[in-house]
Amino acid sequence: MFILQLALIIIAAKLAGSLSVKMGQPSVLGEIIVGVLLGPSVFGLINPTDTLSTFSTIGVILLMFIAGLETDLDEFKRSGKSSTLVGFGGIIVPLFLGYFAGQLMDLTNLQSWFLGVMLSATSVSISVQALKEMNQLKTREGTTILGAAVIDDVVVMIILAFLMSFAGGGDVSLSTLIIKKILFFAVAIFIAWKVVPWVMNKFSKLPVSEAVISTALIICFVFSFAAEYTGVANIIGAYIAGIALGLTNFKHEVFEKVETISYSIFVPVFFAYIGISAEFTGILDNLGLIISLSILAILTKFVGAGLGAKLSGFGLNSSMGIGSAMISRGEVALIVAAIGLSANLITQDLYATVIVVVIVTTIVTPPMMKWFFQSKKQTQSIHSSANNVIES
Question: What is the pTM of this model?
Answer without folding.
Answer: 0.86
